[in-house]
Amino acid sequence: MLTGLSLPQLAGLLVAGVLLDLLLGEPRRWHPLTGFGNVATRIELALNRGGRRWVRGALAWTLAVLPLAALSWWAAEHAGLWLHAVLLVACIGLRSLRDHAMPIVDALRAGDLATARTRTSWIVSRDTQDALEPDLAKAGAESLLENGNDAVFGTLFWFMVAGGAGAVLFRLANTLDAMWGYRNERFMLFGRTAARIDDVLNYVPARLTALSYVLLAGTARGRAWRCWRTQAPTWSSPNAGPVMASGAGALGVSLGGAAVYEGQVEQRPPLGTGPAATAADIVRAWRLVLDTTFLWLVLACGAAVIAIVAAPHA
């Protein structure tokens, strides 16, 4: 571990952070990640011009992430345990996943496509203005499964590795990948560093998330495992593929396929197997993410108990 905290301390802070997030949710004003996004946008506008864009992108990533990560590490080392929990709450997005997804479910069940399209556009980058109910349900389920890793499990993993500073480093890097990691003319070179670093930081958490989805699939474990092993390699993202394929297999629905980006239909590889997603599958995806969170907390607490019991005999 890259922090002076003991395993029992990390596990206790992990539980406290998740429970506080579920209780409080994200702040309605002055969200720290929103502020970071505004700063990152200004850095990008200043540096994403001229030649050697990949060098400028690497410099931009360094300026945006490393000072805040270093400040978080220094502050947590001097302020005490409580700041680790505060940093975790600032980074994790479990409650916000539910708060953004459930209004889509409510709108779809009420037959209010206009609201469902608007709400879905808040959480995905694809075009939703002409999307029908199956498209919106698919987008909502995919977003929950993928962001279960990006907004929750990756953060928890790096918190266990390096405390509050680890959570901050991961979340900021993941945010920059979401902002700059596009394969278009503007970001193809500039965003390369952000995309590659996020791939590295997410490699282990994504596979632990996929494994968790498989373990919690019940009688569908074999299907979830097969979808992971056969479908994930076809997906463009090395980390989103395992997470979404195993999650779709666990839910027994068909995800992936056609989606509209910037007015163009993109045929993505299939994920999962079974019927098209419905509003109910968004709810099931949320429950899978929530159950996985509790699984990770139980494992962390179990490891902490073992460490406590073994300590006198070490």
UniProtKB/TrEMBL annotation:
Chain ranges passing through the membrane: 6-24, 58-75, 151-173, 293-311
Keyword annotations of the record: Cell membrane, Cobalamin biosynthesis, Membrane, Transmembrane, Transmembrane helix
Family: Belongs to the CobD/CbiB family.
Main location (coarse class): membrane
Subcellular localization: Cell membrane
UniProt GO MF annotations: ABC-type vitamin B12 transporter activity; threonine-phosphate decarboxylase activity
UniProt keyword Aminoacyl-tRNA synthetase present: no
One Pfam entry name: CobD_Cbib
NCBIfam families: cobal_cbiB (TIGR00380)
Tree of life domain: Bacteria
Organism whose genome encodes this protein: Massilia yuzhufengensis
Iron listed as a keyword: no
Protein name in UniProt: Cobalamin biosynthesis protein CobD
GO biological process: cobalamin biosynthetic process
Membrane topology classification: Multi-pass membrane protein
Record's function text: Converts cobyric acid to cobinamide by the addition of aminopropanol on the F carboxylic group.
Pathway entry: Cofactor biosynthesis; adenosylcobalamin biosynthesis
A GO CC term assigned to this protein in UniProt: plasma membrane
